[in-house]
Amino acid sequence: MATRIPSQIDRAFLERAWRRHLRVTREGLAFIFVTFGVGLAAFNTGNNLIFLVFGFLLSLIVLSGILSEIAIRGIVVERRPPEHSFAKHTCLVELAMTNTKKRTPSYSLEVEDIAEGLPTERRCYFLKIAAKSQQVATYRRTPEKRGLLSFVGFRIATRYPFGIFEKWRNVYAPGEVVVYPALLETGCLERDGFLQGTETPMGRVGAGSEVAGVREYRDGDEARAIHWRRSAALATLMVREHERDASSHLTIFLDNQKPAGASAEWDAAFEIAISRVATIAVTSVARGTAVEVAVRGARSPMVPAGASVYPILRFLALLQPVRIEDAMAFPVKIPRANTLEVKVAQQL
Questions:
Q1: Which of 25, 99, 146, 266 could form a disulfide with 262 if both were Cys (CB 3.0 to 4.6 A apart)?
Q2: Are 194 and 253 a contacting pair, CB within 8 Å?
Q3: Within this chain, do residues 135 and 276 fall inside the same structural domain, yes or no?
Q4: Are 153 and 62 found together in one domain?
Q5: Which residues are paired to 310 by β-bridges?
Q6: Which of 180, 189, 185, 186 is nearest to 88 (CA)?
Q7: What average pLDDT values come out for the chain (348 residues) when binned by 10 residues?
Q8: pTM here?
Q9: Distance between CA 110 and CA 129 in Å, rounded?
Q10: At 114, phi and psi to the nearest 5?
């Protein structure tokens, strides 16, 4: 994978990566307030016992800073993103935390995986990581849009040992994940009437144009496949079976030309159109049709029937609209047969 050029968010993160950040917790404020009161009483009264208590409270504050620094030092975090991720769909990201210290364990660590513009739904908490050992945890992330999800780094924090302060440091760890378009409900595709392929039977039962025979109705069969005359004769529901087409092929064309002065509504409609194309592609490949997607000046890989549809989903995830002034450089070549055109204007 090519090295990603640091963005403005990355540079700001890098500037803070070497620092130690400290925040007083709510409990810590109460503890400091009590310590200040005890110290004031000790100096006003000159009582040795109160001075002893005051010194003990101050030592807890110092000890808290030392132990928290030991806890977050020598920690290495590795991100393991999911192999496939879809927009508006929750996925699990795995974090592996390694304690590189030779003898000292780390306690009560909280890790936040930071991505550009996307908050983390849940942080990963590690109660104890022994010396020279590794712990693994997962958290949920829901990408809101398709495309490249860019990770910046990690925020490693701890309140160990007394919860008086929260100390954290930033670890720069860039990464990218391709987020596929959100898939729609298959029921919304009925109005598209997309093609099933050419009419060349191959002798196997499946989606096609030639009738192979009839059989009894089973749960999940389509109502339009019922053979009513045969059902009436046998007094039971019978359905037609078809031979699978040998050369089923579907080309889905999406015109990604963006009109001049297009508003945010057009952008939203374009995203819906991409989701519709992705859903049609997934459904068609599962039904035994080879599918490809064509746009202005580009085509996705041809995915055979029953194969993995992820090459098309990756193509759609990275697809961008073409400006109208550049549209002449991207001619449209649409095959006459077995083509479904999805228009952005239909989604407005």
A1: 266
A2: no
A3: no
A4: yes
A5: none
A6: 180
A7: 53 62 91 93 90 93 92 92 92 93 93 79 89 93 90 91 91 90 75 44 48 73 77 81 65 84 83 91 87 86 88 93 67 63 69
A8: 0.72
A9: 12
A10: -100, 125
